[in-house]
Amino acid sequence: xxxxxxxxxxxxxxxxxxxxxxxxxxxxxxxxxxxxxxxxxxxxxxxxxxxxxxxxxxxxxxxxxxxxxxxxxxxxxxxxxxxxxxxxxxxxxxxxxxxxxxxxxxxxxxxxxxxxxxxxxxxxxxxxxxxxxxxxxxxxxxxxxxxxxxxxxxxxxxxxxxxxxxxxxxxxxxxxxxxxxxxxxxxxxxxxxxxxxxxxxxxxxxxxxxxxxxxxxxxxxxxxxxxxxxxxxxxxxxxxxxxxxxxxxxxxxxxxxxxxxxxxxxxxxxxxxxxxxxxxxxxxxxxxxxxxxxxxxxxxxxxxxxxxxxxxxxxxxxxxxxxxxxxxxxxxxxxxxxxxxxxxxxxxxxxxxxxxxxxxxxxxxxxxxxxxxxxxxxxxxxxxxxxxxxxxxxxxxxxxxxxxxxxxxxxxxxxxxxxxxxxxxxxxxxxxxxxxxxxxxxxxxxxxxxxxxxxxxxxxxxxxxxxxxxxxxxxxxxxxxxxxxxxxxxxxxxxxxxxxxxxxxxxxxxxxxxxxxxxxxxxxxxxxxxxxxxxxxxxxxxxxxxxxxxxxxxxxxxxxxxxxxxxxxxxxxxxxxxxxxxxxxxxxxxx
Length: 591
Description:
By secondary structure, the protein is mainly α.
């Protein structure tokens, strides 16, 4: 217990335990362990030191964070009354088939009854028991001796559902790097920061435009990914979870990837090849892929009667090992994607890198979106109010769309919302693409888009395919910015558009991780301040009409990007370093 960071005190009985717990400052975590406990140290570590849970237990041990302390004291007093004031920290009812009947076990049940969620970590092969006789103690000690505690700890440091490249080419050695870091007192946040710095150096190397720079960039990008895997493995190895770490991990991957795209575009420009449109296109496609995943998951994770023949087929395929890996590779997750980018950077040109990215991500997007459409159309599910609220938040509708939705009701129909959103998006993108650049007809298209998008969200998004609404809005906004900047023929307009889309995309990722943490979307004042998706689209369309063939278009896009970035980043940083921020830790690998 001391090696896990606890100050150990011995209670003579349950009454004394209650007195000792009451004397501990209310701001500190406490733990209660039966003196007969036999088990692995890592079992206790999992049960008693994970900071993400208000209360947690393993057989014979219980911990409570400050928010669960009052309930623990009440439960302990009731337990004292039940087992007797002078009873030891164990129960007279210790039959082998009675479960965990020690005082910590009884308290865990009592906390559950009070509505305090008590985490019970999966121990797997790890042992944790409260033997009540010599034979049981001998068996428990034999179970401890038969399992290598450290080997299990290392194995559990690796995500359960990583991609093929990460599982077979990174994790076999990155877990040992994580242990090395833990033994030297390094934190996951420090490793995450090192990964970001390495990726930024890689982007700088790519920006040199030389073959040596490209080779160095590829190597450094792979090293950055190794560190990116190591920080999560270090967090799981040493249970060093934190809200700041969650925020850094959730945002730095996108910052690294987009910075690297910019570095490649700068390097290509030094060689006389302008690939900024390809770089921005790759970023738009990748961001839209993620929004499809986020929206679908939010719409369905708590749906009622959630059944689907397509999902059943997927479950059957999961029993065939090679299909699991094949399907994980098809979606081109971050491990496979970064490996491809790194290798192609070293041996080819930035243009080829972006062509490969666009083709690979487009195929992956078609595969995942088609599967989600099939599941949605074949499953019988009722969307909850929470899911509808999450989709509305992900839609990022500003004051213009909200005003339209308040005035014009959405017609009934199962597919009305996604149809209206898609129609509005097509009008907007077509206006940006086919109307002469600088024409006010583009602004008219933006007005139609605003009206249709407002009607689409006028009612709760509970339809079968309503999860498509946020991705359609993202695609319409991002593609409009990309197309207008590319068609402007104004110097540096596309790099400025790259910065604007980066700032807006950060806001959308920030929204996703707040929702995942259960704290809801960013405040409405923030959405109103930055205009919502339709407001920003209208502004860019007006700028294109007013500043036709004028360098002021680049300046205006840059100013808009800086303004959005400042507002979004300041609010995001304020939230994620506050005490109300959730500890979001994604155990899957983002595509």
